[in-house]
Specification:
342 residues; alpha/beta; 434 Repressor (Amino-terminal Domain); Rossmann fold; 3 domains
C-alpha cells in the first residue's frame, strides 16, 4: 500500500521547515510573510503529488472542521429530506459541509450520534430533537457549540429554534372542516409529548370545543413496522362508523390513513373528508387531491442555516437565542370539500 504523504514528507522533499509548510497549507502565508515564490513552489509540489490534508488533524490545529451536524427524525421523510437538501446547498456556499443522519426519534441513538459528531469536531448542530436530550444540548452549548433546533423545541432549553405555528395550523384546518358542515371530526396522530405534536392536538381540540362538537382523538404509537401503525388505525376507522372527517397529524399518518380508507372502500370526501398535516407530492396526485397543511420548507431551511451561520460567525457570543415561528398554508383541495346533496 502506498504511504500517505504528510507535511513532514513535503517539508523534507522541498528542504523547507514543516512549520512553513503548515502555514502555507492553512492559508497563513501572507500573515507569516512567506514569499509568493515559495508558496507557488509548495502548492505546485502538493498538486503534483496529490497531497490530501488530514481533516481531523486540521480541525485540531485550527479549532474548526467546517462541518455541520444535521440530525433529523427520518431523512427519508419528504419534509426532512427537502429541508436537508436546502440546508446543504446554503451551507456549502458558505464553506461548510453537512453530515446528516436519522435519529428515529430515539433518545439513546441521538445521544450516540451527538457523541460521534463531537468526535468529528463538527462546528455546529442542527437538530429536530427527540425527548430526553436536554442535558446533551446544554452540554454542547456550554462548550461553545451553537445548536439550532427545528420542527420542534425543548421547552426547558434556552437555544435557538425554528418551527411553524402548529396550534393555529390545526385550529385553522379544523375550522375549515367545520365550515364545510362536517360534524364528527377526528384527529389521528402519533403518541408524542413533543412540542409540535402537543400544539397540533391542542389546535384541533380548541376548534372542536369552541363549536361544542364531540372530541374524537386517536393516538398511535410510532413503529418502524408499518403494520403496527395500520392495524390500530384500521380498527379505529371501522369502529367509528359515524366519522365524517379526519385530520391526520403528520403526512406519514395521512398516507397510512388513505391506504386503509381505500382498503375499506371509504370514498373521500363523500364518506370521510381528509386533511393531512404536511403537504406531499402524492397528495396532489391522489384522486381526489388531498387538502394539506403545507409547511414553508424553503423558509424553514433558510432561517435554520441563517441563524446557525450567524452564531458560527459570532466571536463575542453575545447573540441571544431566538425563537422563529413561521406560518403554514392550508392548501384546500377536493378531499375536504363537502359534496352537495343531490
Amino acid at each position: 500500500m502506498k504511504k500517505k504523504l504528510s507535511i513532514v514528507d513535503i517539508a523534507t522533499a522541498l528542504n523547507v521547515s514543516k512549520t512553513t509548510i503548515s502555514f502555507i497549507l492553512n492559508g497563513r502565508a501572507e500573515e507569516k510573510r512567506i514569499s509568493t515564490e515559495l508558496v507557488k513552489t509548495v502548492m505546485k509540489y502538493v498538486d503534483e503529488v496529490g497531497y490530501k490534508p488530514n481533516s481531523l488533524a486540521k480541525s485540531l490545529r485550527t479549532g474548526k472542521s467546517n462541518t455541520i451536524g444535521l440530525m433529523v427524525e427520518d431523512i427519508s421523510n419528504p419534509f426532512f429530506a427537502s429541508i436537508a437538501r436546502l440546508i446543504e446547498d446554503r451551507a456549502y456556499k458558505n464553506g461548510y459541509r453537512i453530515i446528516y443522519c436519522s435519529t428515529d426519534n430515539d433518545t439513546k441513538k441521538t445521544q450516540d450520534l451527538i457523541r460521534m459528531f463531537r468526535d468529528r469536531h463538527v462546528d455546529g448542530y442542527i437538530i429536530s430533537p427527540p425527548e430526553g436530550i436536554e442535558e446533551d444540548i446544554e452540554s454542547l452549548m456550554k462548550d461553545g457549540l451553537p445548536v439550532v433546533l427545528f420542527d420542534r423545541h425543548l421547552p426547558y432549553v434556552d437555544t435557538d429554534f425554528v418551527e411553524v405555528n402548529n396550534l393555529f395550523s390545526t385550529y385553522n384546518a379544523t375550522r375549515h372542516l367545520i365550515e364545510q358542515g362536517f360534524k364528527k371530526i377526528a384527529f389521528v396522530t402519533f403518541t408524542s409529548n413533543q412540542t409540535q405534536m402537543l400544539d397540533r392536538l391542542k389546535g384541533y381540540r380548541d376548534a372542536i370545543e369552541r363549536e361544542g362538537l364531540p372530541v374524537t382523538i386517536k393516538e398511535i404509537v410510532f413503529n418502524q413496522n408499518e403494520e403496527l401503525i395500520m392495524n390500530p388505525l384500521r380498527d379505529f376507522i371501522v369502529q367509528n362508523k359515524g366519522l365524517d372527517a379526519i385530520l391526520f397529524g403528520t403526512n406519514h399518518m395521512g398516507t397510512c390513513g388513505l391506504r386503509i380508507m381505500q382498503e375499506l372502500g371509504k370514498r373521500t370526501p363523500n364518506d370521510i373528508a381528509v386533511i393531512s398535516f404536511d403537504d406531499y407530492d402524492v397528495f396532489e396526485l391522489y384522486t381526489p387531491p388531498i387538502t394539506a397543511i403545507a409547511q414553508p420548507v424553503d423558509e424553514i431551511a433558510d432561517n435554520v442555516i441563517s441563524v446557525l451561520l450567524e452564531k458560527l460567525n459570532d466571536r463575542s457570543g453575545a447573540i441571544k437565542p431566538r425563537s422563529v415561528i413561521l406560518k403554514t398554508n392550508l392548501k384546500v383541495r377536493k378531499s375536504s370539500i363537502k359534496s352537495p346533496k343531490k
